[in-house]
Specification:
By secondary structure, this protein is α/β, with parallel strands linked by helices. The protein has three domains: 192 residues, FAD/NAD(P)-binding domain, CATH 3.50.50; 139 residues, no CATH class; 113 residues. It is built from 17 helices and 19 strands. It is globular and about 70 Å long.
Length: 482
Amino acid sequence: MNHPTDILVIGAGFGGLTAAALAARSGHSVRLLERHTRPGGCAGDFALEGFSFPAGATVVTGLEPGGILRQVFDKLAVEVSHENLDPSIVFHIAGKSLGFSASVTSWKDALADNFPQTAQRYDAFWDWSHEAGGSVYRLGAALPSLPLQRPADVRRTLPAVSGNAIRLLPLLLRTVRSQQTRLGALGEPAIDAMIDALLMDATGATSANCSAVQGAIALDLYRRGCQRVEGGTGRLAMLLVRAIRREGGLVQFGEGVRSLAPTRSGWIAVTDGGEEAWARTVIANVPPAGLDLLLGRRPRLPNAADAWGAFTLHLGIDATGLAELAPYHQVIGPDVREGASFVSIFPSRRTGGARWSISVSRHVRAGPWRAGTDGQKRRCLEQQMLDDVATLIPDVRERVHVLRSATPATFERFTSRPGGFVGGVVQRRGVVALLAAGHRPERGLILAGDHYFPGQGTVGTALSGINAYRDATEHLGKKAII
């Protein structure tokens, strides 16, 4: 039998990378297996015809002092160069452009300038979202472990509990829309659409269904800290890989795991190449359906209403003569549930900014795209998203060198996510992260990723990785460093 590894990590998404890096820093023997050739999962990157693109998630948060990613990188003694962004996102709607500023007062003023007849009725709502969002932010920064299933969860979560956190409990029974109604913050279609767009990006739900707790932090997170990192989230993922290797951990790309089974003293994983990998503990950065496949079960796919897929358009353009633009934009159409385009712009440093990589993403239902690619539907959606980019760059079509699109089937193939679902479970009332699926299905087997507390985004999956690392460390009889 091969000498067992202390911790085997399956998948190099941010949950798996965070767990592996912290475990290696703690002195555990760590082996991470990733089927793809690059780290980061849905927040990774890829190169195409001389352009570099993000695979999915693009916005970086959590590097501000006290932020979750900052806490991780500090524990790993890794410095991250970044630029703080304010405004964080620029909204484009109804012929207007508004920067989402860190200052609530400045944001109210911008709305008042653009919607003088209706903006004031939303003032109390923005104050509420900032106050409640701040309470949720501080709770998350204290690194809680939810749902409460074991004494260790209570021990880790107690430091996060305060009077402010307790006052959040009634929000578990409310939606964002109910808060808008209570505060009289409804009736301006453009402002309502911007609220829904922010919520959709962060929670997968619009105000009518989004949990008020999750909605509060979704509406306020970009105020707390939004950063630009050269190379984006893919750069952060590679920094975590280097941290693992620096501490003696093994990271293998192009080597996935096809099956997993318990043994008397741990677990045995069989790789795509047929190797048997033994480990005392396994951390799997996979959704529930991915775990089912590893254990030889029929995959449990989420209901269509409980998860989203993504359609992403990748453009490589000649940016000669273009003025610098903010990196993140939200172009909102009449139906934000599937009609808002999130545009991310990445100038190439190697070409002095003369070439830009642009990624545009929209929420789509995964099922129809998995059943078979409809070429006409795909081309139509590509053109709609090009129209949205033309809001920022009118002659974008004449500048395009590279154009590729990705569907839920693409995500399923390249990120090994059954069904092609991205972003985790939709955070509706009653399905909030506090009630998320447990991440310890069997002894010595721990899960991480966007389907477990606290949900989607690099910050959320990093916290899931922190909790997976803590569980693995305690299972091995040692003390965690975070």
